[in-house]
Structures are given as structure tokens and as C-alpha cells.
Amino acid sequence: MKRSKIWVGGMIPLALGGQLAVAGELDQNSVTRLDTVVITATRSEESIGSIAGKMQVIERDDLMRQLQSGDNLSTALGRLIPNFGVETQTATGGTQTIRGRKPLYLIDGVPQSDNRNVSRFLNSVSPLMVERVEVVTGASAIYGVGGTGGVINIITRSAGEDEGVNFSTQVGTAFSTQELDSDSFAYTIGQTIAFKEGDFDGFIGLEYEETNGFYDADGDRIAPEPAQTSTHDSDRYSTLAKLAWQLDSDKRLQFSYDYVKNEQDSDYAPNYGGPGAPALTGTPVEVKSIKGLNLHDQPKTEREAFSLQYTDNAFLGQQLSALAYKREREYRFFPFAFSFGPQNFVNQSTSEADVYGGKLVLSADVNDVVSVVYGADYQKDKGEQNAVGYDASQFLTSGGLDYVEIDAYGYGPDVDTKTFGGFADFKFQLTEALLFRAGMRYEDIEQEVDDFMPTYEHLLVPDGLRVAIQGDTHNYNETLFNAGLVYSLNDSQQIFANYSEGFEIPDLARLLRNAVAPTSMLAGMLGVPGTVISDMDLEAMKVDSYELGWRGDWEPLTASLTAFYNESDKTTTFNADYSVSQKDQKKKIYGLEGSLDYFLDRYWAAGISGAYTRGKTKDEQSGKWLHLDALEVAPAKVVSYLAYDLDSGSSIRLQATSVFDYNKAEDSTSSGAIVDDGDIDGYTTLDLLTRWKLPLGELGVSITNLTNRDYQTVYSQWAEHTYGQLSGVQAKGRMLGASYRIDY
Fold it and tell me: Which CATH number do you get for residue 379?
């Protein structure tokens, strides 16, 4: 019987562009021990017993088992990563933090972060193209800017080891059991081709997915979420192509191309309450879909990436990896309506980023005791965000259905960011039982902000009287350290302790969106001094992360338990006027996470995993420690399962995902300290996931939300408190999904 997930610890440089593999596959009568899982992230092999921290590897089969047509990666990761927030069922991953901090996403070691922190990345990855996901938990001194909560590295599929040409075709569908018509169906079709001939190998993957409406437990069509965008009524096109040349036994060159486009085409709008859109004034309305949307440019997620990697396992007695990459992305939102005094406005923003960079990494065994991984990386990121304004009168008259474009303008400044970093990570095998790891990284960042016209200046001030804000350049540099110990109590148990530092820089484009110049008439009207970028006291937010853990691996049981704590001297707050501020106020987050898997016999297994996280920030005005809201701290979560696997490879898995109440978020009289004053109601959903081996191919059948639970996701509850009632959409009701795959 194969174990559904493998828990390991992690403070290793996945961002080096290497791979991570799991060896020692479980058979039906054994469990992989601590010294039989091999990690090759730096192309130097390590057992999991040498990692001073917590790490998780999620294999392809486990990912695909969790996903139906219409789902994205956030669905699977929300169920499979204990300390990761549950799925949002929208385009955003805003509430999906790790240990209360944002993760850094990578694809094959290439960082996907840019200077606009738009939490939509997991909606831009095709699950069909993913081989496995590696999760390093906690802040990292190795990866540089971003990833203060951890690192999630998505490894895409490749040719494999089989000679010749191999094909795989997969089709799937999913639909609501409460609304059995064509509008409730989602469809997926994918084709992959893997080939290996002599010194050349490659992989081509193509996927198309059509998603129609989503329905809640009552059989009602779920309303669009206007703040961060829903994913219903959309088409997704995905392409992954890899071509590699094995130059000799040690040298390899690989080119990769990755493209995803997910675009919405819907006839449905949120219910603003009819003509006059009374929902804008806070009048209670029913949160539902209204047919008749007239919007030409609908929400879109588009990403394109190229990379070229060269590896040499015998470079001056070392292993070398050199990686160059370029990527572009575009995120378009649903129009958002808001009021400023007596005036109403409707706009739709689009965020774009153009990024290129490179990494150079070397690793070597210095002697029998010491090994080292070191290198440098560079990235340049050009970001911009623009908005389209719509006729507010037409919007109000139509009750939020008609969007007639009237103008276009900048939605915050263009920002260019250059990042250079160098790092080294050492491993010392002090005794047979005791291992010590230590490393450091130096990061230098230059962020150039262009001159720009503030959003409110454009909306509220007549042309000719508008005052632009002058741009400036900000520099950030930081030296980060990490250190960890692993002590083997015996062949089956270890304890570990880890300290690591991470940091992130301010999202300047978002911070400055609602700024006004000191000489603007708005500064006087609003009673504010105005913003001078060169005078802004901005610093990188440094996070100190601590963890202490234990892990054990016996036949037939594996278990782990980790306590964590992280702190920073700065915090970013989301304010009541939808602005974002960086404040010099302390933030501390702490908690526990653990897992247990027990194999009853060769066929049956059961397991449970969970995480408990709490966090506080010290309000700079009142001096009080206030609990963080659900945007940062995910409510406690427990996932349990009972599985039955047959020798043939068929399997049945019943799993429960329980989210607990979170009533710690506090309202504050201090302006902008905490916005969310609403509690989060917990819920439990059941999923039945099956896989059947057929004479030709494999059939998967799943029922999610088996009991048809009526609830709102954590994100929807938070968004309702923050953006307003129209963001409080219902979650999906019971869904039935089926997929068929044949390899040939």
C-alpha cells in the first residue's frame, strides 16, 4: 500500500532550479524510513534525516485525486498542506498563508513573485502539468525576498526514463448534484506526449478546460465575487513544452515553455439590488447571480514563461546549475463599484508584470564532514497596473449590469525592481547522530517608482488642476542567516531545531495607489499632509522564524509534531478605505502543526493532520496587542482520512476537512489598525475520492462536499466583512466528478 503523503523537513535551496525526488517507494508491507527518502534539490543527495526543519512532498497522484474539473491547485494544497489556508473557491489565494505569512511560489525553481502582491498565482497553473509539489515551511534565509511563510515549489512534468514515445489522454467532467443541466458542468480534456531518443528527450502537454456555473447547497447559482474575481464561466488553455539534450554523462541542457490563459465569458453579475444599486449604500440585498451582464473585457489570468537550464555534475569537482528565465503575466479583475462622498465610481483594474532573471548554483562535498551549496541570482521586474473607468450613471440605472467605458488611467505607479542576491549554505556532520546546518544570504534591491497621477486625483480633480506625484528610487539590503540542528534519537526518531530569517519589501504600487501630493487640493480637502516618495521611511520587513520539532517513522506508523514562532517589527494593514499601509508595529505568530499516518494492514490506512495558528500585532496608537484576522492567520484546520487500496492500484478514500471557528479578530478604535471585526464560522466537509484501474486506463470518481454542507469559505467570510455583503458568496454544494486517463 502506498502512503498518500511523505512528511520531511526543509531548509534546502529549492529555488536553485534543481529537482527534489522521493526514493524508496512504499510497497504494501513497508513504510519508508528516515534514511531512505532522497532529496536532490541541489543535485546533491540527502536523506530526510539531514534536514533541520519541516518539509512536505506531494506527489502527482495525490494532487490529481483531490481535483475535479473546474478546480485549481489551491483546492488540493488547501487540503494536503496542514498549515496552508483552505481553498477560497475564487481566483484569489489571499487567505492561504503558511504560519501566518505569505509563501513564495516557484515553478521548477523559478520564483513567481513580482512587485505587485496579487494573490492569484495558483489560478495560473494547470494541474495536469504538475509532477509534484515541494513545500518548505517557515521563513527562509536561502531564497531571498518573499517567502516569509515558506516556499512552495511546483515541479512540472518531464519526459521520464522510458525510451520511445509515450502518450497520455485524460478527459474529465464535474457537475452540481443540485442542478443537473448543462450550465452546471465543467469539462477538461488534456493530451501529453513524452519522448526519449538517444541524447534527446522532451515533453509536450496541452489542456483545455471549460467551466460553467457553480451552484451552492440549495441549488442556486453562486454569485460572482466582485472584489477579487470568481472563476465560473471561464475557458482555460494550457501548454507546457520541454526539450532537453544530454550533452554527455554529466552535462545537460533543457529549454522549457509554459503558457496558461484563463478568461471569463459570463452573462451573470452580482446582485446590486436593481436600479440605483442600493447595495452600494449598504442596503441589505440577496447575494445572488443576476443574468444580463454587459461587460466586454471580463476577468482574465494569463501567464507565459521561458527558461533555459544548464547542469554539469562534474564542474571542477562540483555540481553546477545555471538557469535563465523570462516570464510575463496579466491579471484582469471584475469591475468594482465604490463611493467617495456623494460620488459613485466604477472601475476595473489590470495588473501586469514583465520579469527576467538568472540563477547560478554550485554544490560540493568539502570532505567527509562538510558540504556546501552556494551561488547568486539576479532578477529584474517591471510592473504596472492600469484601470478602466465605467459610466457610473449607466451602472446605477442598470442595477450593476451595464458597463460602458468612459476613460482609462493609471492605478498606482509603475515600479521597476532589480534584485541581486548571493548565498551559501553549509552542512556539518558533527557526529553520527548530530548534524548542524548554517547559512547566510545577502540581498540588495533597488526599486524605482515612476512619476504618476494618483487615482483619486484623476477621479475627483478637474483636468488642468491635477497634481502628479514625483517618483523616486528606494534601496533595500539585508543580510539573512539560518542555523539548524538535527539529532537522531535512534534509527526511527529525530528531533530538530531551526532558526531562519526572511524578509519582504513593501508593495509600493499598492501602498501609493490612494496617495495625494502635498500641493494637491485634495490634501487640503482630506486634511492630510500629502505624500512625498523621497521622504517615505520604507524598510524591508524582516521576519525571524523559530521551530522545534520531532518526527518518527516506524512500521506501520509515521508521525510528526512541530511548534513554531515568528516575529517582525513591521506589519502591513488593509484599511477600511481599501488602502494598504505599512506600520512600525510588532507582529508575532505562533502555533503547532502535526501529522499521523497509520497503516492498519496492507490495504487499510488512516491518518490525521492539522495546524493551530494564532497571531497578534501591537497597535502603534493604543499600545494593545490585537489578534490578527483571517487574511493572515488561517483558522485551525484538521484533515482526516480513511483509505482502502487494492493491489491493482484501485483505491477509495474518505476524507474530512474541518475548519474551526475563529473569533479572535478584534475591532479597534485606532484608525486602520484592524479592519476585520467579524468572526469566522467553522465548517466540516466530507469528500469521497475513488480511483479504479480498468483493463484499459484508469477511472476516477469523486464526490466533494458529500453531505451537501451549506457554508461560506474562510475567504468569503473575511471578504464580506472587508469589502461588503456582495463578497460574501456561498461555497459550492455537492459536486460529482469523473475522469478517465489512458496511457499508451
Answer: 2.40.170.20
